[in-house]
Amino acid sequence: MRLHKVAAVFKVVMVVLVTSVVFLASAEFILRNFTSYGIEYFTSFTNNNRIIGGVIYDSYLAEIMGKFVQDCKSGKNKKPIGAYRVMVLGDSIVRGGELKKGESAFPELLKEMLQEKYAGTKFEFLVLAAGGWSTVEEVSEFARYAGCFLPDLVILAYCHNDAAESSQRIRKLHGRSILAYYKTDIVYVSQIPFNRYLTERFLIFRLINKSLVDFIEKHKLPLRAEYVFLARTRIHEQLRKLYVLTHEISSRVLVVIFPYLEEAPDRNRFLMTHLIKSWDEAFHFLTLDLSFEFNKYPYRQLQCTATDPVHPNALGHSIAAREIMSVLEQNYKNNISR
């Protein structure tokens, strides 16, 4: 009799399990193939930048990387006469995350614009970026190469998911990780086993987590609002470190703030933008807040995918390159034109 009950329970469990798997698989298939988000997301193309030693370079610097490092170690590294070096620090935005094949991220567009406008100057662009990096990784990587490449200009691309990444690390240190932030600021409940992996890989789990997070934020703690305050000290520390590094090698710094592509501006991101601007002013950095130009367009017109608020599309990158070019001409024209 007992074995019969166990078999019956096992049968029910298996039916529920199989039904759940079939349902989730069907939902995932529909999301991927019959919704605009799924079609856009899974047919997008991330630019295949060249990677050497874990660092991304454009085609020119990739070829001469070895010589630069060798000359640096031997003390022979000298900047060519008339050259202007730019080092771009960032995350997947700088790499052109979610851009389609044939589309260019703003560093490539900016280099083309500068080379065309100032034909007498040889521009060398070095891009240090990886998906999921925050200001911590970006500044740390810059510290490894700053004394070798001696850039004339450092462009730090900041997006507000940098704060989310820093918040996630801080929460783990303090044991308060109820919600966590995936590298593209997709929020998920960290206590559920394998939830980050599932949220990263499957659209259906993003929707499930969104419902869970909305419930937690509404009935429990306003954790989403908390991350800016947890992260701001760490980001300030990185900007201070960047100031020290660039001051030692006489490099100028431009911080470019990429806004979230969303309908309603977030108060905490507005606060973080204000803080970064005030810190930049104290460190004598230039700041370019792209929200002013991005807000001239419907936010969906600048998105790579319908539910991705982080990565701008080709239009967004062209706007960024144009605005950076304008700032450089207004402030550094005499240094660029050689």
**Kindly, what is the distance between the CA atoms of the first and last residues, rounded to a whole number of angstroms?**
92 Å
Shape: elongated
Low-confidence stretches: 39-64, 222-229
- Structure summary, number of beta strands: 9
SS content category: alpha/beta
- The SSE string, one letter per element, is HHEEHEHHEHEHEEHHHEHEHH
Count of runs of 4 or more consecutive helical residues: 13
How helical, in percent, are the residues? 55-70%
CATH topology (level 3) name of the largest domain: Rossmann fold
Q: Please, could you describe this protein's structure?
A:
With 338 residues, the protein is an alpha/beta fold. The chain has two domains: 1-34; 50-163 and 224-336, SGNH hydrolase (Rossmann fold, 3-Layer(aba) Sandwich). The protein contains 13 helices and nine strands. It has helices spanning 2-34, 36-42, 59-74, 92-95, 106-117, 135-149, 161-174, 195-201, 203-219, 223-248, 267-283, 291-294, 314-336; strands at residues 50-52, 55-57, 83-90, 122-129, 153-159, 179-181, 187-189, 252-258, 286-289. It has a five-stranded parallel β-sheet with strand order 4-3-5-8-9, sandwiched between helices. Strands 1-2 form a two-stranded antiparallel sheet. Strands 6-7 form a two-stranded antiparallel ribbon. The longest helix has 33 residues, at 2-34.
Summarize the structure.
With 338 residues, the chain is an alpha/beta fold. It has helices at 2-34, 36-42, 59-74, 92-95, 106-117, 135-149, 161-174, 195-201, 203-219, 223-248, 267-283, 291-294, 314-336; strands at 50-52, 55-57, 83-90, 122-129, 153-159, 179-181, 187-189, 252-258, 286-289.
